[in-house]
Specification:
Layout: H1 2-5, H2 8-23, E1 40-44, E2 51-59, E3 70-75, E4 84-93, H3 97-117, H4 125-133, H5 140-151, E5 153-155, H6 164-181, E6 195-205, H7 215-225, E7 237-244, E8 248-253, E9 256-259, H8 273-276, E10 300-301, H9 306-309, E11 317-323, E12 327-333, H10 335-338, H11 343-364, E13 395-399, H12 456-486, E14 493-500, H13 501-508
Antiparallel strand pairs: 1-2, 2-14, 3-4, 4-6, 5-13, 6-7, 6-10, 7-11, 8-9, 8-12, 11-13, 12-14
């Protein structure tokens, strides 16, 4: 009788509310006002040529959530390589176990895959022991299936480059992580185990354009794929990103925000494989609930429910994009932010908060502002062409099977892609950063952090600049979390803000 009166969504809301009240054995009059200032902020200190400051802010959103299921990971000198950083953000569903294990083990699995084709990626003895402990899990028959899974990926017709192995490493790492979660470690439910959405990034710095010598031969094919964009002469770095589920990343370049991740939920019409595989999607919701439980269509875990797991696959969307001196910041955030704010709103808020923080700092120091124009808005100089506000794809994988369908068009312009909650948002890479110890240097060409001795005044100035960007990253991440709370978010919220070298160029003007 009850199921006939209420929709699956209403029943789910009733169950969630009951569980929340059951766990919160506190009189209501103690919780009349829930302060939004309980968010915790975690600054990160990382040495990278392209990164000026990194900070993560998280909030449990105690009004709606009894537990915090979000996890994040930041690894400096990933694989013992200078100017290579790893960033990961994991949004747990129905518990924190999957997100917690993934945040620890997925970076190791990815590093192991990278080291197999690139010896420059080195593993520590501890990381090697972790891989060896899983030897009995990945048997020959599993490896055969894994090879089939990674071989069905097809690259887009953009540029033929060396990034194919990196994308295969992402795919295999996600596949193996999902297999490890099938062991059920730390799971307490007998019916429905936890799962997580994930976004992972590798930011490589100090990389020149590997196609400069072949630009003449490739000019025609590149122009056909991206008629409105031009190849940059120098690439300061490359961002490799992989995501599954509803965790998104936004990159701001020359004042424009781009979401380069793909939303894997029932609202994404390209996820039609669900219906082809016999999945049930409730029809009484705007975009429906998969098996009447969840909107996410890709992710890691979810093994407790065999029927649900049949539809939720661990196949990531992967893409590589160049990072140059026009790139200003990267934002990674869990569903709690994107359910109430879209790409354009988040970009505008971040730029505004940066400007507010800059003005506040100069007022405190009783110094005049170096520029009356907003810090992160694009300049209007004649030299700025339309292509400077766009990006191009260096490499991209397209899953092409009934288990791993494409979510992109191989010939579509990146600026036409959709973000998770934006109707007209443009797509672009995202993710985390840390502090650059060479923050006072020009970034028109990546240079070493130890080019020569510095006097005390230079060190003091460098320290002040470093502190400024660290404080700016903390301020922006905290304000974005608060904005999501005020906007009515009902989920855990975690925001990672990475200020890139482009923000320094704007700061010095």
């Amino acid at each position: 009788m009850i199921s006939n009166r209420f929709t699956e969504k209403i029943l789910q809301s009733i169950n969630n509310a009951f569980e929340l009240l059951w766990k919160k054995q506190i009189p209501a009059y103690y919780k009349i006002v829930d302060s939004i200032h309980r968010s915790s902020t975690h600054p990160q200190t990382i040495c990278h040529l392209l990164i000026k400051g990194v900070a993560i802010c998280e909030d449990r959103n105690s009004t709606w959530r009894a537990d915090m299921n979000d996890k994040f990971t930041v690894v400096n000198n990933f694989g013992n390589k200078h100017n290579v950083c790893f960033f990961g953000l994991f949004d747990g569903h129905h518990g924190v176990s999957a997100a917690e294990l993934t945040s620890v083990e997925l970076p190791v699995l990815l590093l192991h895959q990278l080291s197999r084709f690139d010896p420059s990626y080195q593993m520590t003895p501890e990381e090697q022991n972790i891989i060896e402990s899983f030897h009995t899990v990945f048997r020959e028959e599993y490896i055969a299936i894994e090879e089939l899974f990674s071989s069905i990926m097809k690259k887009t017709k953009t540029l033929k480059c060396e990034y194919e192995n990196i994308h295969k490493a992402f795919a295999k790492a996600f596949w193996r992580m999902d297999r490890l979660l099938r062991l059920g470690r730390k799971e307490v439910s007998r019916v429905r185990w936890s799962g997580c959405s994930a976004v992972t990034c590798i930011l490589e710095g100090n990389i020149k354009n590997p196609y400069a010598e072949r630009r003449i031969h490739k000019r025609v094919s590149v122009a056909e794929s991206f008629p409105s964009q031009m190849m940059p002469q120098i690439i300061s770095g490359v961002l490799h990103i992989a995501n599954t589920g509803n965790v998104q990343a936004v990159l701001c370049r020359n004042g424009k925000g781009f979401c380069i991740t793909k939303e894997h939920t029932t609202r994404n019409i390209t996820e039609r494989r669900l219906l082809q595989n016999g999945a049930m999607i409730s029809s009484n919701e705007p975009h429906g609930l998969l098996e009447g439980q969840i909107k996410t269509t890709r992710g890691l875990g979810f093994h407790g429910n065999l029927k649900l797991k049949k539809s939720i696959i661990p196949a990531p969307h992967t893409i590589s994009v160049p990072i140059d001196d026009l790139c200003q910041f990267l934002i990674l955030a869990t569903h709690g932010l994107w359910e109430v704010l879209d790409t354009k709103e988040v970009t505008a808020l971040a730029m505004t908060m940066f400007q507010v923080y800059k003005e506040t700092c100069f007022v405190k120091q009783n110094k005049s502002l170096p520029s009356k124009e907003p810090l992160l808005f694009p300049t209007n100089e004649p030299s700025n062409t339309k292509s400077e506000s766009n990006i191009h794809i260096l490499f991209q994988y397209k899953p092409e099977s009934t288990k791993c369908v494409s979510t992109t068009n191989s010939k579509e312009n990146v600026s036409d892609s959709k973000c998770s909650n934006s109707q007209n948002a443009q797509t672009f890479p995202s993710e985390m950063t840390n502090h650059d110890l060479c923050s006072e240097k020009e970034t028109k060409g990546p240079t070493s952090a130890n080019d020569g001795p510095k006097d005390s005044s230079e060190k003091e100035k460098e320290s002040c600049t470093k502190n400024f960007y660290e404080g700016a990253a903390k301020y922006i991440s905290h304000e974005l979390v608060n904005a999501a709370l005020v906007a009515g978010s009902r989920d855990n919220i975690t925001v990672m803000v990475i200020l890139l070298s482009g923000s320094e160029d704007q700061f010095l003007t």
